[in-house]
Amino acid sequence: GGGSGEVEQGGDGNNQQSQSPPPVPFNEAEQKKVNSLLSILEKNHGINPSKYTIMKSNNCNVIAKIEKSGIIVLCNEFFNKPELSDIDRLATIWHEMYHFDHKHYGKEHEATPFDKVGMEPVNLIDRVPPAIKAFLEEKANNELGGTGITSDMIESSWQNELLIYKHLSIEYNQNEVETYRAERIEFPDSEVSEYYKNYRDYLEWKSSAILDELKK
Fold it and tell me: Can you provide one Gene Ontology molecular function annotated for this UniProt record (predicted)?
């Protein structure tokens, strides 16, 4: 995943990989942007862009993901999210390339309920580190504030992200943690935007917390 998170894991755990429509080619402006990012990855990070197939999806709720087929998919947010810097975008593409290079694809990731009987979620709200909680609060306020939504509803929107009804496999979560750690070495916190640093900290922490639950 991520700077990606390929499959929604948590709330309703919709399986992004199997339900999303097929990826599409980039428009001209997007292709130009991607080409310039790929040339930086080639020059500064030793990447051979010709190894990868990279396409666009208008229907994903993450920044980028890798399909079961190994196609790297950049989502609308990759191009349009105002908080992202170009270094964040480089890190995001690099992250998906790492998944590809380490064969972290090819499986259908089914989301499985933690509690098959009572459908009770695993509650991570009380476990969330203060910095990540602050990030989630700020993100919810930025996305929902000023829309007439009450502060209680804004609070429950970020808390819902931490009520984990469904999970993906141990292997999926281990791959995410491994890939974020590798990404952080290649693109240190000091180089990416504050938003992206917090975003990837959150996604890595969430995968780690789910792993802790799965290993109980």
Answer: metallopeptidase activity
